[in-house]
Every structure is written in structure tokens, then in C-alpha cells.
Fold each of these.
Amino acid sequence: MSDKTLTQPGGIDYRRRQRLARLAQNLVILGGAIVLALYVLAPVTWLVSSSFQTEAEIVSVPPHWIPEEPTLMNFEAIFSATEEEEITYETRSGQDPASGGFIPSTAKNLLPAMWNSFLVATLVVILNLLVGVPAAYALAKIRFWGRDASVYFILITRVIPDIALVVPFFLVIKNLGMLDTIGSLVLTYLAVTVPFTVFILVQYFEGLPDELDKAARVDGCSRFQALVRVFLPLSLPSLVAVVLFTFLTSWNEFLLALMFTQTEASQTLPIVLAAFTSDFTISFSFINAAGVLAIVPPVIVAVIFERYIVSGLTAGAVKG
Amino acid sequence: MARIRFEHVEKKYANGFHAVKDLNLDIQDREFLVLLGPSGCGKSTTLNMIAGLEEVSDGNLLFDDELVNYTPPHKRDVAMVFQSYALYPHKTVFDNIAFGLQMRKAPRAEIETRVRDAARKLEIEHLLDRRPSQLSGGQRQRLALARALICDRPLLLIDDGLSAVDVATEHEVFQGLQQRLSGKTVVIVSNRIKLLSMTDRILIFEEGKIAYSGRHEELLQHSGLYRSMYDKQMRHNTNGEPAS
Amino acid sequence: MFGYEERSAALFLAPVMAVLMGVAVFPILYSLYLSFFRIKLTRPNRTPFVWFDNYTDLFSNELFWVSVARTVAFSVVSVTAIAVIALLVSLLLNQNFRGRRVLSTILLVPWAIPYVANALMWKWIYDSGYGALNGVLYQLDFIDKYMIWLGDQDKTIFLIANAFVWKEVPLAAILLLVSLKAIPSDLYQAARVDGASVWQRFIHVTLPAMKPGFMLVMIYETMMAIRHFDLFFILTEGGPGDASHVLSWHIYVETFRNLSFGSGAAMSYVLALVTFALSYTFIRTLGRKV
């Protein structure tokens, strides 16, 4: 018995206690993990489930958690709604035989809006890199008078809420005749995302050894060449993190797009989506399908690049 | 030709720290010079100023009678070995050595021959396809040297880049190098005793100024500080422990 | 002072500075300028200079103060919830267990989706006729008939806060996790040797070590809550009545529905100053974090 239980003179069985404690701990972790997963996934799952339901099913009380007659009709409507069809009484009920809800003609704006969102986001990412990388290099590696002030300045521009910028922005863009253009979005998004980009890159660059930069310059590189040939190849995780954050921020942005866009020439996905939600005549299932479509690209991007998020924020061990 | 002259050179940092004060120094062509001193005394700063990595705040720095205050490092003909070696982690050993020649736009064939030649002389030819992280400490040191020597620049600076390995290896490396260094001006920051006896001149820095200057034997005689340093190191050496 | 280090730095920084000056600094100054005029886009040719009238009108406008109160309420509720939930989540993620990677990936979903989609999703959940909230509560017998959630003045702020918190928690949790991971394990070992229980270790080692990171995250979330707009636009449009009439909504309405750009500019400017002052004091108390 003496090798089975570790007992102290007081009679406390530490081994068993430890085992119980560990069991309790594992249960708590398991419970916590399940709760968290539900908290995060349940709302989204409901959205997805709704998007596969017909109008008839979706208005049932109590709700059908899993569609009994799943349909792709809603998604079809989005992808095929490019025809300039007049919504008449006949065609309207023909589109959704179950009930009076119908699919709006503005559905055809959804895909072009997605394209606009994609275009804007891509341009903003590229510009962010072009503008942000040299700035971050200078702030991280060049010791110059005004360095700290520059850092503060760049960060401070982000303190002001977008809504406060909207009034002057709107007038300026209007006077420049740039209302309803992709350009207005690209420019403003750039200003809004670049501070964070610089912040991420500076943190990362500072983790790279100074002497690498010096060695490159002694070897014959100008500062710019040192940046491109030595620092950039070593900063891949951080660059990916920048691409990720910038892309997502641009894709998800709403307020500025609301201000500057008026027609499908420049409207981005959030705008079109918002228009649907305020239209009471649109079928719920259709809106939900549109919502799912809006969620899919950013989630895919985020999941693919997930591992770069943390590694992109700290330089880790870069040996020279 | 690589003659370096400091005329009333000052170095002040933005935070007010006065690293180098009224430095006047004439380094002859092909001189082998060592800078010594406690940390923060200005010796590394001086070395960096020669390389162009630190800007001269005041005074004149001349290479062969030409003012180089405003010449950036990549336009000065200087080679340097850093304390941490600063090897490019993302490049192979071959590319590390070749980098300087590549920046000069040398033809590929020439780069190939010269890199292999340099690697062979430093006994790292078998490692050309590896990355620096796969090398041992001694091999890294030799790589850093190969990189510094490949372009055959008239001026070589070494910032304490020899103290990371044990005395025996360092001595070996140094013996091997003596030939190759004979045509260059070499300025080293180090306090390894073996080197000191091989040098032309030794400068001891103190708080931004040169406190003592002379040959090894002279300093042994005239400087108490130098002698005590020497004794301490010699004691360590005979005990077989690495010199500090 | 302006040697070649400064010159090269200037070259590298020029693009960023140009963009920020043009698109961030200039608008603020322009906004200040505009706030001294009475500008109504319905009468574009009459823009009298009115000194500080826009500002005084602002402070005597009851709805303005209501919006401030609503914003404070929303921010307090949201940030508190985020603090608690994100802390728990980060503690969970700090443990080593199978499936942890999967869980962190799942956690990315709320963070990645656009706020508009988030709003749409919750609007559907809160829907009075067919929404999931009604459905669940009804099936579980917590309520005996379907309720109009978003039409209830007392509940609106909490419902919107819930949607906001749901989306913000992942990022906050991950940031807190980073600061959790930075705590050296020696501290825990020492506490254990000293006889501290799990709870005591948490109170005396974990919490104090997390404090700077925690403060940073809370400040960030507060800033986000104060300026948030999207959910208010989609879910309630400031209603019902003025139950969710927050400051950002107020500025929007004044500027783009009442088309009164002068007073909109004045409000924006006040908001900008306040947030600036807040962040300045916060950054100062935190010390240099950059």
C-alpha cells in the first residue's frame, strides 16, 4: 500500500488529489471550449441555415433550425440576377413560389459590388505596402531627429473617429468631382489603414538586427537597396499580416463607403447589403444568402493567413 | 591607397551624448591599428564613422585627402566585420560572400571563381550551399571574413568580430590572414592580446578621446592601465581560460 | 541637425506623410474652418459666418446630450462585457489542449466578417416575427409570446452591445493572450513554492502581470465603441425614439439627413478633440508603448 498512495502523516493523499484536480481542470477546459465554440458558431450557423431555406420555411414558428427542404434558390437568385428583368406581379411570385416575398431587382448589384470591394481592397493593400514599408524602415532603422514625433504623429491620426472626418471628406471629394468613384474609397481607406500597417512593420523591423542593415550598406547597398534585398525577404510574416489586416479593413468598411458611393459604379458590398436590410419587401432568405456571401471571402482569407497573425507581429528569432 | 585622417572630429548623438570629442588621428596607408578602451569610450563610434555608418557631427574626415563626411557607406571602399557577424540569414553561404560583388555588378563567372577561391582559402568551401544558421561559430566567423575580404577593398574594419570564438581558433584564423591583410589598412576594435603584439599602433580611448597611443612595447612600459590589462589577459591565457 | 540621416529618412517618409497630411490632417483643419459657418446643403449659396454659434447651439441641444449619454451607456456596457468575456477566453486559450488550434481558428470568424453582415445576422436573430432569439426563448418556455426586441427602448442598447461584443471579443482575447503568454513561468513556480493555490496565483501573479496589456486592450475597445456606427445604422437607426441615438449617429443625421454641414462639422470637431484628449491622457499614463 505504501507505494500506491503518497500519504503524509496528516493522512492527505496527494496523488489522488492531484488526479482529481486534473480531471476537474480538464472538464472545465472542455466545458469552456464547447461554450466558446457555440457562442461563436451558433449565430453564424443560424444565418447559413436560413440562407438555405425557402421563404415558406423561414417564416415558420418556431423556426426550423435545420432546413427541412434545403434549397439553393436564394444563391441562384444572386448569381443569375444580372438580367435586366422587370419585376412584375407575375415574375415576382414566379421567383419565389412559396409566398409573397420576392427577390429585388437590385440583386443584380450584389456581384458588381463584390467586385468593387475586391478591387478597392486589392488596390489599398498594394498602396499600403508601397507607402508603408519605406516609412516603417526609416522609423525602425534610421536614427534621425524627429523620429519619435513622426511615430506619434502617424499613430495619432487614427485616434480621430471616422465620423469626424466624414464631413470635410465629403465636401472635398465632392468638390474634386470624385464622388461615386473607386478612387475616393482607395484614397481614404489608404489613410485609414496605413498607420496600423506602419505600426506592425516597425515593430517587426525593430526585431531584425541593426547590423544586417549596416552589413548590407557596407557591402554596397544604398539604404533603399538594403531594405529591398535584405529586410523585405526577412519580413514575410509581417508583410502577410499587413496584407491580411488591410484587406479585411477595406472589405469591411462601411461608413466612408456610405458617404462616397451612390451607384453601382462604386458601391461596395457592405453598402448593397445595407440597402437590402432596410427594404422590407425583400425575402429574408435572400438577405441571409447575401449575408453568407459577404462573410465567405473574408473568413477564407482570415483562416488561410491565420498563423501569420501572431508571428507577423513579433520578429521572433532572426539570427544574423 | 587608404589613408584616413580625422581633423577635429566630434560626434554628438541626438540625445545629447557626446561620444567622440575633438578627435585628431592620422592613419597611414597599410597601417594595422587597434582601438582599445572601456565600453562607451568612443572606439566603436570611431570605427563606424570610418565606415560611414555614423555621421560626423563636426570636423573633417578624409580618405586620401578627400572629404568623405557626406559620402554614404556604400560609396566608400570599406569592408567590415561586425561583432555579431551580421550574416544574411536568408542567403546561402555562397550568396553571402558573393553579395558585395553582386552589388558591384560583377559578371557571374567572375563571381563564381572569386567566391570559391575565397571560400577555399578560409576552409569553408564545402559549406557553400548551406545557410548561416547551419554553421558553427568558427565557420560563421570565417564566413564573415570571407565576405569582408572578397572585394579586395583597401580598408578593413573589424568591430570586435573576433572575440566570440576561443583563443586558439582566433589565433589560427589570424595567422592565416596575416598575408591577405598585408596590403590593406586595417583598423580593429578588440582586446585580444595576441593581436596586440602584431599591430603597428595601439590607441586607447577614454571618454571620447585618445588617452594613449603607441606600439605594444612602448605602452607596456609607459601605461599602467595597459600593463594591468595585459597581465590580466596573460594570466587568463596561461590558465587555459578564454581571454575576456 | 539635418544631416544625411535626416534627408534619407525624409525621403522614405515622404509618401506616408503626404497621404496622412492630405487625407487626415487637412480634413480636420477644414472641419474646424467649416464649423464657423452655417452651411445647409439645401441652400448652397448662403453660408453665413456665424462665429461659434454652431458650438453654442450644440451644447444647448438636448438631443446632443442624449446622444452623449447613449454613447457612454453603450461603451460602458460593451467594454465591461468584452473585458470579462475576453479575459475568460484568453485564459482558456492559454491552456494546452487538443483542438486548441481549431478553436482559435473558429474564433476568427466573428473578427473577419464585415460589421454590416454582423448587423444583418443579429437583426435576423432579433427579428420579431421569425427570429432565432424568439424561437429559442419560446421553445425553452422563457417567454410565452414572441417579443419585438429591437422595438423595446430598454433593451436596445443591450442588444446592440451584444452584437458588438460578439464581434470584438476574438481580437480582444487574442491580444490578451499575447500578454498572458509573456508572463514568465518562473513567477508561477515561485508562487507555487510559496504555497499559493490556483486562485491565489491568478490574483497575485496573472492579473498584475496582465495589467498593462489589459489596459491597452480596454482603451482600444473603448475607442472602438465610442466611434461605432455600422450597427446603429443597420439595426435601429438610432431608435426606437432615441434609445440608441449615439453620438456617431447624431452626427450622421445632422450632416446627411438634415444636411446641416456647419453644425455637423462643429460636432465632429468636438468629438475629435475629446477622443484626442482621452487617448493622450491614456497614452501618457501607460508610458511609451511603441
Amino acid sequence: MPGRRVTSFSSPVMRSFLSISLSVLSLLASLAPAQSMGQAFFADDGHVEFLSNVPLHSFVGVSEDLVGRIDLAENTVDFYVDLNTLDTGIGKRDKDMRKTLKTDQYPFAEFFGTLLTPVDATSNEPQEVEVEGDFSVHGITRSLRIPGTLTFSEQGVRVQASWILNLKDYDIEPPRLLIIKVDEEQEITMDIVLRPE
Amino acid sequence: MAKWSRQSTFARVFFMMAMLTTLPFASEAVGQMARERAAEQPAEEMFWSPAVIILPSTTSLEAGDLDFTIYHAFGPVSSGFSNLFGLDAAANIRFGLDYGLTDGVMLGLGRSRFRKVWDGRLKARLADLAGWQVAAFYSAALETPEDGRKTVDRLSYHGSLLVGGKVSDRLVVQVAPAFTRFVFAPDQLDPSGGVLISQNNHVSVGTATRYELTSTVSLTAEYLARVGNTSDGTSNVLSFGVDIETGGHVFQMFFSSSQWTTPHHAIAWSRTPPSDMDFGWGFNVHRAFGTGR
């Protein structure tokens, strides 16, 4: 037909068009965080604490700046805390702790892993779960399995977990109170309500 | 044909750029968040305690912290073994208690043995920028021996600006210009019967440093240099020592050419020139307590 131009997928114009389209789609796909509607939860105001024991004495370090995200579609679990936000109740002890953990060099304690246990997001009952992944602090990363509890509600999902961290495993020299060393084993507890993204 | 070829080349270049753009994202595990530091970060600790030795440091207590100090300055080491190198001499002792009102403002009270001095002090951090800190320090002291002086004549004041910063990861320096005033500064008699003229006002520049040997041991030194008119028979002050930090305590062990425990008195009344190399041993123990929670 006169005046009508026919292009095929093998024509240079279409190849260019397809290349550009694929590139743009690829770019957009990479920019969008992995998420599935209603299945990703996030918060940056979680509670995390460690309990240190010394003979005849113990103290707790607390942060209310735990950041966490769970993506049920991707089955990922991601938590981190800026260690400079830990508060033991004595400023001088906080400074000592920051030096011990070398927070200038390694500012975060972080965990990234996957859910090993299937969860039912429609149930409001607490669900015992286990996650597996990499925990890093003081520049050392180790694989961990951590048990925890997920409780879904209208607000989101509450995550509670607790485990024992051995300072030696992360090349952290236990601090001393005078001549007495702090126990190598620290009890870590976290509690955070993640809200739907 | 050449036109299509150019378009195809453009498409390839665009595609490669797009792929390169995605690389930073592709390097993170899927679903992993970018790590962000907390908005509020603590002030850097220049010195391990609020005092270098005699001089105040730019370091301040954090809000709610109590710092109890026990300071001892013994006699000169040159007094020999029979005096246990100065330990038999009358030691000047200061008990002090400081409190952090906020993370940058602290106040304190102390009592020293020599001249039965009570001193109150206030320190406020004025700036904290790029590894450098500026603080203002003010102290008023009252001498309380029963010598018949009027209360106002027992008073002295000391104000200084403290500027300290990190020169390297291990080395900290501080400069502290200061003004000190004794309301009553009686002239003194020297052993030969002469009169030593005393000054009421003193201008000085203190310098201090800390070198971190390990995470728990530092070397410290400070020098109090008077500027302008000084009282007869008095001298500048040199002190140097070691700080040992251990879980809420800082132990400072030092040698000093002065036994005075407050900067007022050290600047105005120290009588042993550092060049005499006649130092006395001393220590200062800091114990931190928390009252916040």
C-alpha cells in the first residue's frame, strides 16, 4: 500500500526500540526494592539490648534505634543497629564500650538472612520461627541460626528474638571492671514491631 | 544504512550504561537495606576524663553521669628514700564530685587540703566540629582556714577557654588561655627576709596533650605558662603522667612540679620551676556513676 511503512522485529528500528525498552525496564526493576504488596514490613524504632554479667554485678545496654525489615515475598530478614546508640546508663561506660567495639570503624551490628520456617501472615497467634543468615559486628561475620517469635496484627508484625553472643567469636576483647573481666557471653534480646510498607 | 547503524550503536551504549547503573544495586543482596548512621552521634572523647592532670580538659560528662575523684599530690621525689620519695611529706588531697547536667554541660564541687580550699566549677562545651572541641571553664574557690580573713578576701576566680582536637587517631592537643584572679594576694616573706611581691591577676596559657598507646593506656602532659606580671618566687608548672582506663574508672598517675590541685592555685602559687626537675608523684582516680536509669 502506498505511504504505508511496514517494520518487522528484525528491522534495525525495532531492534533499537527493543534494546532501549529492555534497558529501561531493567533499570526500573533494579531501582524498585524487592517487595510484594502487603508482604514487606519495616520499622526503625525497635528495641535491642545486651546483658553483660560481671561477678556480683550486671548491666544492660539498650538501643531504641533498631532498624528492621522482613520481606515475606522474598523470604528475607534484615536487621541492623548503629552501635553508637547503645546506652548502658553511664556515659563513661558507653564511651568505653564504643572503643571496645571500634564503632568508628565498624558502626553497625547487623543480620541479614532468610526465614527457615513458613509463616502464616493471616494468623494473630505468636509463631515460633527460625532464621538463618550472617550476623556481623566488630568487622567479623558469622553464620547464625536464631529462634524467634513473629506475631501478626493489624499494626504489622512483632518480632521478638534472643540469643547468646560470645565476644570471642567476634574478636572482641571483653572489657574489664577494674581487674574483673566482663563475661564473654552476652545475652542479646530484640523486640520490634514492623509495620507494612 | 549508516543512520540505522548509528542508532543501533546508540542503543547498545544506552543498554550498557543502564546495566552499569544497576550494578550498585545488583551488588546488594535482594531485600537488604542500605545502612544509615543514626542522626544523633555522641561527642568524641578527647581526654579520658574531665581533667588532664591539673588543667580541665575539653571532655565533659554525659547527662546524668557523676564523676567522683580522689586526687593526691605527694612531696618531691628528691626528698629521698628516708621520706619514701615524697610519700612522707604532707600530701595535697582533693575530693571532687562532678555531675553532667546535659551531654555538654557539667558542674562540680571539690575540697582540697592545702589552704582548705572549696572550689565550684562549671564547664560547657561550646562547639564540636570536625574533631575539634571548644569549651568554656569557670571556677570559683574559697579558702577556709581560720585565719581571720574576710570572706571576700578568701575568694579566687579562674576562667578559661579550652580548645582541643585530634591531630591524629592517637594524638590529642589542647590549648587553654586563662585568666585567674585572687581577691587578696598578700606579699610574702622569703627565707632571707626579703619581700616577695604578689599579684592579684594572672594571665596564663595552658597546653596539654594525650597520646594513646593502647585502647586503655594513654600518656598525658600539660604545661601551665604564665604571661605578663607574675608573683615573685612563683613559676610555671609542668606535669606528665599516664592514664589507665578500666571499665568506668580512669586512674591517672603523674609527676608534677606543683602540689596544687586547682588551676587557680597552681597558676598563682607554684614555686618549683620545671627546670629544677624536682617533681612530686601523684595520682587521681575517677569513678563514674550513672544516675540516668
